[in-house]
Amino acid sequence: MSGFTLLLVLLSAITHAGWNLAGKKAGPSIGYFWLASLWGLLLGLPLVLPFTWPLLLALTPPIWAWLLLSGLFQALYIWGLAEAYRRGELSTLYPLIRSSPLILLLLGSLLLGSAERITGGAVLGIVLIVGGCFFLPMQRFADLRLSHYLNAATCFALLAATATAGYSLIDDLATRAMRELPGLQLHDAWVALLYVVLQAGSAALWLGLAMLLPGLRRQWRNAPPPLGSSLFTGVMMLLTYALVVWAMATARDVSYVVAFRQISIPITVALGIGLLGERLNPPKVLGVAIVVVGLLLVVLN
Q1: Is residue 76 pLDDT above 90, yes or no?
Q2: S-S: 153 plus which of 23, 88, 173, 291, CB 3.0-4.6 Å?
Q3: For residue 48, is pLDDT > 60?
């Protein structure tokens, strides 16, 4: 990856870790992230429309369909994220959520015929990143057994991870189609910004439909989400995905971008331990070290 792509992904990783920490501290819920997605749409649309109006008018029905599907995957990701964080530690679950999509994206690249752009060293790095994350839920090395992972928090974390892989592949296809629309001369950054604002609106639509369920309406009435925290999360989510989509436009393969985004794993583990008082133990240290080695392999290849 180029230095510019690395910078975009690094900035995205920092903002991603920041809004995950904010969401965990605020008490994650569907209502909280619905409000955050709505903030992203309401604040982002007036900023980007004056510069991207011709692009918006030129969007084709297939691109709108990609946006709806991406929003659905984003909503599933948010549901999995909220339910996982309600049940477990940030420093344990975040790495599982972030790393697992790499294998799915690698398989997606094989199916889409773009795997020849991924080097052997990068594949090894991806495997190390995913493998290192499976040490993180352990309190001691004797905990390395299947039963330790068979719980609701891990299941929701894997749902979030699968949804991440889904919207990452769709975002790459959709923004590629947007950049190839005839007669438009827009910088990749503006394409990325318009896309993520519309994606936030799509996610807010799906989450809003979920909020019609009686249980979620009751949860909203009993514990309305904090406006300040949801505003911060909405802005950070928008910035995070804008940087990622922009990085995708400059990378050889989307798997490289998603792989290096895992730099947010050691950042978030440190935040969870330092700010939330979560436990630091030998398996967690080893897992983070393996992830860092995997990241270096991805960057160098």
Answers
A1: yes
A2: 88
A3: yes
pLDDT tens for 129-157 read 777 777 766 777 766 666 666 778 778 88
Distance CA 71, CA 119 (A): 31
* CA dist., res. 163 & res. 63, Å (int): 19
Residue 159 CB partners (closer than 8 Å, separation 6+): 76, 77, 79, 80
**Rounded CA gap, 170 and 63, in Å?**
10
Task: Give the DSSP letter string of the chain.
Answer: --HHHHHHHHHHHHHHHHHHHHHHHH---HHHHHHHHHHHHHHHHHHHHHHHHHHHHH--HHHHHHHHHHHHHHHHHHHHHHHHHHHS-HHHHHHHHHHTHHHHHHHHHHHHT-GGGS-HHHHHHHHHHHHHHTTTT-SSGGG-SGGGT-SHHHHHHHHHHHHHHHHHHHHHHHHHHHHT-TT----HHHHHHHHHHHHHHHHHHHHHHHTTSHHHHHHHHHSPPPHHHHHHHHHHHHHHHHHHHHHHHHSS-HHHHHHHGGGHHHHHHHHHHHHH-----HHHHHHHHHHHHHHHHHHH-
Instruction: Say if residues 50 and 133 touch (Cβ distance below 8 Å).
Output: no
Angstrom distance (rounded) from CA 81 to CA 35: 15
Q: Does residue 109 contact residue 251 with C-beta atoms inside 8 Å?
A: no
pTM across the whole model: 0.77
